[in-house]
Design goal:
single chain, about 260 residues, alpha+beta, six-stranded antiparallel sheet, two-stranded antiparallel ribbon, 8 helices, about 25% helix, disordered N terminus, disordered C terminus
């Protein structure tokens, strides 16, 4: 499985005289790369209910070298300095609520590895085992409490948000660092006018669709011996705010897939 990188940026001009590309990476915008999971009718209906429709965007960019984790800072800095990225990368404006382009090179980046090792939705079975979700799929309710800025009215949101909850440790910190968990949590919490689900199924189904589409685990393959041809591209998912990206690097390998996301 490849790695996702959440990137925090400061959108101000680079110092004069710096080279146009850092680290030797070159990028190209791929507007033809579509993300069916975001436009599927059932997904858009759910995102509307969760006050997230129009506030999630995925874009794809190709790059010319194999991504290496130890060069992640060079990779990310080169990305934000690339002339093919600056006029095409979109941000959600806090002031207008509209999508705008980056429009300038950034001065500072911070890159953190986010593991994408989970290959099965059984990762969330513990929610049933710990009576956070009933066997019927209904989320167990609780007395209302406040965890800024969220009102917590069920055991699922307690597990996601409240560190002093007795069941918070159902998911370890490494579990919570997983991209699948981050995506699931974001869907469960929703936007400012979110209408929460009473059952777990819609959250699991939507998280699975988005995860497969963005990380493309079906293409993380074991290959037969022989000459392997591959090409690399970069998927960007804006999820948490206008300054946070999810970079999902994917190798599309011509070979035989032995495992797919379940």
């Amino acid at each position: 499985m490849e790695t996702a990188l959440p990137i925090r940026t400061s959108a101000s001009s680079m110092a004069a005289g710096e080279p146009a590309h850092s680290g030797g990476f070159y990028f190209r915008f791929l507007p033809q790369r579509l993300f069916p999971s975001l436009s599927a009718p059932e997904t858009t209906s759910r995102l509307r209910q969760w006050s997230m429709l129009g506030r999630l965007k995925a874009q794809a960019f190709g790059f010319d070298q194999t991504f290496q984790a130890h060069r992640k800072d060079d990779f990310v800095l080169a990305f934000f300095k690339d002339p093919n990225v600056i006029p095409n990368l979109q941000l959600l404006s806090d002031s207008s609520g509209q999508w705008i382009t980056l429009g300038t090179e950034v001065q500072k980046i911070e890159a953190t590895n986010v593991p994408c090792t989970q290959l099965s939705m059984s990762f969330f079975n513990r929610l049933y085992e710990e009576d956070i979700v009933r066997d019927s799929g209904h989320i167990v309710k609780c007395l209302d409490s406040f965890c800024d800025p969220f009102m917590v009215s069920d055991e699922l949101r307690k597990v996601l948000l409240m560190e002093d909850s007795e069941k918070y440790e159902v998911f370890s910190q490494p579990d919570r660092d997983e991209f699948l968990f981050c995506l699931f949590k974001h869907l469960c919490l929703g936007g400012s006018l979110c209408q929460y689900e009473d059952t777990l199924k819609p959250y699991l189904e939507t998280a699975k669709l988005l995860y497969k589409d963005l990380v493309r685990t079906r293409l993380v393959c074991a290959t037969l011996p022989g000459r392997i041809m591959s090409r690399h591209f970069l998927t960007l998912l804006w999820t948490l705010s206008n300054v946070t990206l999810m970079f999902c690097t994917t190798a599309l390998v011509l070979g035989t897939c032995l495992e797919s996301f379940r």
